[in-house]
Task: structure prediction
Amino acid sequence: MMCTASFMTTHVGKIRRLACAFVLIAAAQAVPAIAEAVQTEHVNAELISEHLSLVPGQSMQVGLLLRHEPHWHTYWMNPGDSGLPTAIEWNPPAGFKVQDIVWPLPKRFDVGGLYNFGYDGEVLLPMAVDVPADAKPGSKVHLTANAKWLVCREECIPGKASLVLDLPVAPAPAKADPNWTMQFARARLAQPQATAWKADVRMNGERIVIALRGPGLPPADGLDAFAAEKKLFDNKPPTIRREGDALIVDSGKSEYFQSAPAKLDLVVTAPAPAGVRGWRVQVPFVDASAPTP
Amino acid sequence: MKPRPLILSAALALLVSPAFANPVIGQPAPDFSVTDAAGKTQALSAYKGKTVVLEWNNPECPFVRKHYGATNMQKQQAEAAAQGVVWLTVNSGAEGKQGHLDAAAATSYVAKVEGKEAAYLLDADGKVGHSYDAKTTPHMYVIDKTGTLRYMGGIDSIASTDKDDIPKATQYVRQALGELAAGKPVSVTMSEPYGCSVKYGS
Result:
């Protein structure tokens, strides 16, 4: 560092110190992740990083921050009756790998009797960047990505943006970017929590009935449930009730249901003071109508 | 008769029969009677002996624009007509909603996109749409000469708004029509439809 205490005693030093402080402030502002938000029709998109730098050999959190205009929404991995999930394609430098979106809990949108699952307001779609162990501290990483989405109110508009995220490589510990602490904290709360629930499923005519048992089952009031896979649930709000020690999720079967999959990834959501909270459970799917092997 | 029993029996009928019976592959396709853009009544039952395609349409939906912009839809309509297949485009957009068309607007839309469908059906009250459980635009149905539903779902296999995906996708309706014409069973009878939601009024 050029700015040391050595010349702080002199009068000139005072001036230098002041100049130095300015240089430091300017440097601090230049160092953080460089990314630019892209304003498209009804959505503002931006790549953000939880930390100010990438650490060699570590998996770091980044994300696609989408800010929707009021009444507009984009989609979850299973968009429901219509729509398309948001997709992002990265072009990371050699040795870097960006993992898939870890989808936050979806919200249900009633579009004239049809149902969509997705996000409105501000949402962060988080992803992990795997930084190679041989990434050189002091070097700059230029991450680019093409994001595509469908944004709908009732009408829909396809959107896309080419996005950039520039981050320096630095040894651990990485400092959190104070601009985005809140967004990443909220994104963690918006993740479905893993559970130790046991799930049993049975087909009841045109219904798929799932019984959940185990520790920490929430009361049935106000719950909603979603299948991460398409073509299983009919997308209408399921009936959710307690039956003794079990929480029952009773959903209509999709008319595009063809055969029982090996499993169904169920997400259960509950209204919470800060938006929504939820859980995930993998439901082993055994089709009662299938011939036993 | 007093009105009360009538209302009661109507309510009971609603309770007993599901409001919208889902269409089922291999089962008779729901019949309908609806006015087209030319003012003609179109009934499915009138086309016994012919293969019928139903296409749900909203001219302003980006998924519909993808297939019309690339002339994929018009080409398939023309191919179907050449094979003697009756292609009916249906608009279930309610009045005041995006994509709703009255007869005059529908006629000029078909002319503008050079649509080759046999008729453009005006279903603003959503009756036909609900009876087929049409969810998206486009949403496609293929009905064989006996009136049996043989295909329902997407126009093709790649859910996107990108025209470049069309050549890479399996065109399910074209495939089903080819198989039916050849007397073969339809290999893909269902696919999940993709598109904008149908803008029903209720």
In short: Residues 3-16 of chain B form the longest helix (14 residues). The interface with chain A takes residues 22-24, 60-63, 94, 97-99, 133, 135-136, 152-153, 159-162, 190-192, 194-202 of chain B (CB under 8 Å). Residues 153 and 179 of chain B are 16 Å apart (CA to CA). The two ends of chain B are 30 Å apart (CA to CA).
